[in-house]
Design brief:
Blueprint: H1 2-7, E1 20-22, E2 32-34, E3 54-59, E4 65-69, E5 72-76, E6 81-84, E7 95-101, E8 104-109, E9 112-117, E10 123-126, E11 141-146, E12 152-156, E13 159-164, E14 169-173, E15 187-192, E16 198-202, E17 205-209, E18 216-219, E19 234-239, E20 245-249, E21 252-257, E22 262-264, E23 281-286, E24 291-296, E25 301-305, E26 310-314, E27 329-334, E28 339-344, E29 347-352, E30 359-361, E31 376-381, E32 387-391, E33 394-399, E34 404-408, E35 423-428, E36 434-438, E37 443-446, E38 453-456, E39 471-476, E40 481-486, E41 489-494, E42 499-503, E43 518-523, E44 529-533, E45 536-541, E46 546-550, H2 554-558, E47 567-572, E48 578-582, E49 587-591, E50 596-600, E51 611-616, E52 622-626, E53 629-634, E54 639-643, E55 654-661, E56 667-671, E57 674-678, E58 692-699, E59 702-703, E60 713-716, E61 723-729, E62 740-745, E63 752-754, E64 760-763, E65 769-778, E66 784-795, H3 803-856, H4 859-874, H5 878-899, E67 904-905, H6 906-923, E68 928-934, E69 943-945, H7 951-962, E70 969-978, E71 981-988, H8 992-1002, H9 1010-1026, ...
Parallel strand pairs: 60-66, 68-70
Antiparallel strand pairs: 1-2, 3-4, 4-5, 5-6, 7-8, 8-9, 9-10, 11-12, 12-13, 13-14, 15-16, 16-17, 17-18, 19-20, 20-21, 21-22, 23-24, 24-25, 25-26, 27-28, 28-29, 30-57, 31-32, 32-33, 33-34, 35-36, 36-37, 37-38, 39-40, 40-41, 41-42, 43-44, 44-45, 45-46, 47-48, 48-49, 49-50, 51-52, 52-53, 53-54, ...
């Protein structure tokens, strides 16, 4: 068998099948399952099945469907497949068995056992090893199940293995190395009955293992015993709710009657007939309706009604796209929504038992008694209960007892046939005659008793003929009148005279028809005639022979209705209200008593605004056809439930006026691909909300290997703020009709609505914070899972955005402010202290300057100067007296001027100094010579120095140095630039400091020069006050014989630049 399957290589494909029951008379008593089939490469599936041969199926606790194929394991969410193979971590890609136990999906392959953790997606592998009795019996795994004790049982090609899933410990049972009492190593399946005993399917009979006595009983096929096992190769087992054991073998199916210890083959499941030869059974399934599904190896699917002992068959038909994809049925599974999945050799088939039971009638070239043409425009029920169907190619009359059709068509060779085949409307009159309106071929009366046809055609030269040959609608009034709506007016036919009274649109007459084209006419319950036109609704006024016209007002249009008054159809409800279909104007409700319109559009839940006909069923609900399917409007809840072609409709496009409710309440609707028939009560509404799952999580569009479930929390870095989610509602009934809405609380202001093709949410540049991502979904009938799912998303702040950082930053800021304030206050205090200090220095400096000024203007100097002037005058030395007096006055003025400033230009100080030296020279009769030398680099007018600094030292040199010298002395005052300072040299060749001190002692005068002392104090204060450098160095001079030869004073004064 292994070699056989390896030789079979098939293309990758998926076959999804929607369920629809219908009885086909051509198959006589057989009932077929009709499928809507499409392959994996079809664009309706986002990603196809990895391979076409489906061996195993299971739905996990989250709702995902897992599909095992010969080339990969597929996880299906209703829209796309996620494939697992060896690259994903499986031991082998040929999947043979699937089973979920707790949070683990166990996967059996042709080469080993795998355990997929459904929470985190991790995979563990288990492989059989030679001579290892504590491991798997073999790597070829046929089946996995669990017993009532929590142990897993793995059926392999070389033995049976028990596995403790909690400890991952294996125990081999009935293996080739374990004393096998059943003479077969090839185990296909194990099941446990309600008494905890085990039934084991092998390739060499059926085995019963009594769990209490550990006794083994074997069952074999005996050709001579009809109650024996049908065949020794037992492929599958099933225990139904009545604890009946069903056995599928290579030669049919049977159940075990324990009371008779016999195998019973149901009569209707005996496959050894001429039609169906005895065939191998590969799979079994029991549904909720007590039906046993039997999958065979080549003969398709058999549905056995256990209570009725009757069987129906479904099989693949090459020219039938709705049939099974293949007749070899390997596995079957019923999911939580009641959908049955059938895995075959060539695809996966989906059978939805809960799908709306819309019966569809179409033209089938293989069955001549099927519908004559698929384009259906009208219906009418005749007096016998048969349904007349007007099509694009004649009339089909459906015999409701046999579901067969016979036809009425135009026959050119005889006048006793209908005038044309393009039928647009059919109505029955009170006499049972059928009135048939055609496209461009006029009106026909068909007498159902005599089969005679009477034609009515337009004659432009006769105003008593039908207004136009394009007949759109008919209403049968009181005998003998018939109202006929045409493309060019409305006619009233008197059947007794065969004459028409016609009504047309007159632009100058507001009481005429609002438009020539009459889409529909209706005689209401009060006997009033209504006409739907291309520009309004008209009510015929019998008394005045004119019309009252109703239109949706401009004000109503401005309030949100569509600006359309083209009415396709009108139908009356049991309470006397009206529903109108429109051309792209939505569904219109009209109350004739209040003359008010109410319009329902796509915004209210309609799938499409092109509405053709609206019928009230016996339960008060309104059924509406459109260009996008069929809708049911609940009058009580004001909710639309929409149905599409995927629900079993003939197509999504219907035709105007192609709708009827039969006398038994059955509804008929026609379109471009046949017609649908159903009882409204059979169209059950699924009120079970779907389960929602996150199917993918991406960061910067990169898929993350992370399984997410409701209530999970995702923590992201601050720069991982571009992310997206994929989601799906795991309701496989009709996934294309599921709707979604999502919201990221704290980011989205409102819910975002999405269709089934937009199952994702994308976010970019989301700020740090905590958010809740919510998803809700409806099922295919519009019932929402309002709780939905929620994920908590935490986007962490960067280090500079954390609360710790913010607190630290705040404290740092407070500390910085404190330090700034503290330092500033200290600076202010220091500044204040310095200011006080400077103020004190200024006061001291000012006092010293005053003292210096006093010294320069002391009485001794003034008295001596005046004496000198007097002496010049007495000695009649007028010139010297005048010269001395002039110099003296200039000196006084300069001294007073300089004393007012802290700094004076060097020129001014030199002038005062020169005046003083000249006065002293005159006073002492030219006792000395002097020279004042200024470095040419010194700008006397640009550089400023403190006043009265140099003069005391010059005075000391003259008075104490030069005046005691017998010879004529010499005084030098030199100024040189020394960087930013002026170096002042005062040098005399007098007697020297020691001789001067000796002379003072001998004369009894022991005093230090107050001028020099005050000047030294001034210089010290200036050093503190200005932070400049003021220094005084006094050097004694000696001649070559080391005798005193004068004094040199060097004063360093900072030169301010003015």
């Amino acid at each position: 068998m292994k070699n056989l399957f390896y030789l079979l290589k098939w293309g990758s494909g998926l076959l999804l099948v929607s369920f629809l029951w219908i009885i086909n008379p051509a198959l006589q008593a057989q009932t077929s399952l009709y499928f809507d089939r499409f392959l994996s490469e079809n664009t309706r599936i986002e990603r196809g099945l990895s391979q076409n041969t489906v061996n195993s199926l299971v739905q996990d606790s989250d709702g995902f469907l897992w599909i095992g194929t010969w080339d990969g394991l597929n996880k299906f969410d209703g829209y796309s497949f996620n494939t697992f193979n060896k690259e994903s971590g499986l031991t082998n890609e040929a999947i043979r068995a699937l089973y979920q136990y707790k949070n683990t999906l166990w996967v059996g392959t042709e080469s080993g056992l795998n355990a997929i953790n459904l929470k985190d997606g991790s995979i563990r592998q288990f492989l059989a090893k030679e001579n290892d009795t504590a491991g798997l019996s073999d790597n070829w795994i046929n089946h996995i199940t669990s017993d009532h004790y929590g142990k897993l049982w793995i059926s392999t090609a070389r033995g049976l293995t028990e596995l403790d899933p909690e400890t991952s410990k294996f125990r081999q049972v009935f293996s080739r190395d374990y004393g096998n009492p059943i003479r077969s190593n090839y185990f296909n399946m194990l099941v446990q009955d309600h008494q905890n005993n085990y039934w084991i399917a092998t390739n060499h009979g059926l085995v019963f293992f009594n769990n209490e006595t550990e006794q083994v009983t074997r069952f074999f096929h005996s050709p001579s015993d009809s109650t024996s096992l049908p065949h020794n190769q037992v492929n599958c087992l099933l225990i139904d709710p009545d604890q009946r054991l069903w056995i599928g073998t290579k030669s049919g199916v049977a159940y075990y009657d324990s009371s008779k210890m016999a195998f019973v083959k149901p009569e209707s499941l005996r496959f050894s007939s001429d039609l169906i030869p005895q065939k191998e059974v590969l799979s079994l399934l029991h549904d909720k309706k007590q039906t046993l599904w039997v999958g065979t190896n080549g003969q398709g699917l058999f549905l056995y009604d256990i209570k009725k002992d009757s069987t129906r068959r479904s099989f693949h038909q090459t020219n039938k796209s709705f049939s099974l994809s293949d007749n070899r049925i390997f596995t079957m599974y019923m999911d939580k929504q009641g959908v049955t999945w059938v895995g075959s050799f060539n695809g996966l088939n989906k059978l939805n038992h809960n799908a709306p039971r819309f019966r569809t009638f179409r033209n089938d070239p293989d069955f001549p008694n099927s519908l004559v043409n698929n384009s259906v425009w009208s219906f009418e029920e005749d007096s016998y209960g048969d349904i007349w169907i007007g099509t694009e190619d004649g009339i089909s009359i459906l015999d409701r007892k046999t579901s067969t059709h016979h036809f009425i068509r135009h026959q050119p060779e005889t006048i006793n046939s209908i005038s044309g085949n393009q039928i647009r409307t059919i109505r029955k009159d009170a006499n049972g005659s059928m009135w048939i309106g055609t496209r461009y071929s006029g009106l026909n009366q068909y007498n159902t008793h005599t089969k005679k046809v009477t034609r009515y055609r337009n004659n432009p030269r006769d105003e008593t003929t039908i207004p136009d040959d394009f007949v759109l609608s008919i209403a049968t009034a009181e005998v003998p009148f018939i109202w006929v709506g045409t493309d060019k007016g409305l006619g009233q036919l008197n059947t007794l005279t065969g004459k028409f009274k016609n009504y047309f649109h007159d632009p100058d007459n507001p009481k005429s028809l609002p438009d020539q084209r009459i889409y529909d006419v209706l005689i209401d319950s009060k006997g009033m005639l209504w006409a739907c036109t291309a520009d309004g609704l008209a009510l015929f006024q019998k008394e005045t022979n004119d019309f009252m016209v109703f239109r949706i007002s401009t004000q109503e249009q401005q309030e949100g209705t569509l600006a359309v008054n083209k009415f396709f159809s009108i139908r009356e409800t049991r309470d006397g209200k009206f529903w109108l279909g429109t051309r792209s104007g939505g569904l219109v409700f009209f109350d004739a008593e209040t003359e008010e319109f109410r319009v329902f559009t796509e915004k209210d839940g309609l799938p499409n605004n092109m509405t053709y006909v609206a019928l009230e069923d016996l339960h008060g609900d309104i059924w509406i056809t459109s260009n996008w399917g069929l809708s049911r409007f609940s009058s009580e809840q004001s909710i639309f439930t929409n149905y599409e072609v995927t629900d079993g409709l003939q197509s999504n496009e219907f035709n105007f006026n192609a709708g009827m409710i039969a006398s038994n309440g059955e509804l008929f609707f026609g379109g471009m691909n046949g017609f649908n028939v159903f009882f409204p009560e059979e169209i059950a509404v699924n009120k079970q909300p779907p389960v929602i799952q996150i199917t993918a999580f991406k960061l910067f569009n990169v898929l993350q290997n992370k399984q997410l479930h409701n209530g999970d929390t995702i923590v992201l870095r601050y720069d991982d703020n571009v992310f997206s989610f994929d989601f799906a509602a795991l309701d496989f009934t009709n996934p294309s009709k599921i709707k979604y809405r999502y919201m990221l609380e704290g980011y989205n202001a409102s819910w975002i609505e999405r269709s089934s093709s937009q199952r994702y949410a994308e976010y970019a540049k989301v700020s740090p914070g905590t958010y809740n991502f919510r998803v809700r979904a409806s099922n295919s009938d519009g019932y929402w899972n309002e709780d939905g799912i929620v994920l908590t998303i935490i986007i962490r702040s960067p280090w500079y955005g954390t609360w710790l950082f913010r607190v630290a930053a705040f404290l740092s800021l407070v500390l910085a402010i404190y330090l700034i304030v503290f330092i500033r206050m200290r600076s202010i205090r220091k500044t204040h202290e310095v200011e006080l200090k400077y103020l004190a220095l200024e006061k001291q400096l000012f006092a010293l300057e005053q003292k210096a000024l006093q010294l320069q203007m002391n009485p001794h100097f003034l008295f001596n100067s005046l004496n000198s002037i007097q002496s010049f005058i007495v000695n009649n030395d007028i010139n010297n007296a005048i010269h001395y007096l002039s110099k003296f006055s200039q000196l006084m003025r300069r001294t007073l001027a300089n004393s007012r400033e802290s700094y004076v230009p060097l020129r001014d100080e030199l002038q005062a100094l020169q005046l003083y030296v000249e006065i002293e020279k005159l006073r002492f009769n030219d006792k000395f010579e002097y020279a004042i030398e200024v470095d040419p680099e010194i700008d006397e007018g640009f550089i400023e120095i403190p006043p009265m600094i140099i003069q005391p030292y010059v005075e000391n040199a003259i008075i104490h140095g030069l005046m005691h010298k017998k010879q004529k002395g010499r005084l030098l005052i030199a100024m040189k630039m020394d960087n930013e300072n002026i170096r002042v040299i005062i040098e005399d060749d007098g007697v020297g400091r020691e001789k001067a001190a000796e002379i003072r002692r001998e004369s009894g005068i022991e005093r230090q020069s107050r001028g020099m002392t005050i000047t030294s104090e001034r210089l010290e204060i200036l050093n503190q006050y200005t932070n400049d450098t003021y220094t005084v160095n006094v050097t004694d001079l000696f001649d070559t014989s080391e005798k005193p030869a004068g004094t040199r004073v060097e004063i360093t004064i900072h030169a301010n630049v003015s």
